[in-house]
Structure prediction request, 228 residues.
Amino acid sequence: MPPRSGLSPAPTSLKPANGVSDPDALLARARRQVLEITRAHCFCDLPPEAASHAIVLDAVAFHDRLRDALDGRALQSAPMVVCIQLDGADAARDRHGLDAADAMLGTACGRLSRLLSPDDAVGRGSEGRLVCLVREPGTLEQAVARTTDLLDSLSMPCEVGASRLPLLPSIGAASFPRDGGTPYALLMCAEAALNRARHYGMGYAFYTGVLDAAFTTLCHARDSILLN
Prediction:
């Protein structure tokens, strides 16, 4: 997707400039980046959505494609799984109906397909989420840049009829073999990172074992208190 004029370039690294790894500072920085992207897209003219013939795999077909990628021996870098939640599409389903939500999902899948390579894949995940297989994400910095590109593209609102509706994306990413050695493990790790990014309004997050385990434990404890 060509760059849009007036928008700041996407960050290529999560490391603070001063080298300090303060979690609160990193979280605040991530939130500022999401706000900057959102504000820029709220006031820019939307480019016309090119006709898309994106192939969106069902859960079984995506699992098979991911398994084949993990079994491959000609990869130059480790595959990455990306899990995406579109809260805007969920809200549109309640306020504007199923057709509006489906139109927004179709637009999102088209944008993803144009950003991914032909060897990558887009599929349906659990709970209405989308999942992507990025077969050659490159270095960590390149993977961060590609994930930021996905967030940037999905942060643009959709025109559905006479309405301009936000997709409100949250993204979680997990890499093979560092985060998991099977399709199921990678998908679970990507979903855990997504839940953390969504909860803290970070836009996107890469799976981090200690952080995501702690956050999952916190959520389970909260749910237990609410149920009791």
Q: What stands out?
A: The first strand starts at residue 56 and ends at 57. The radius of gyration is 17 Å.
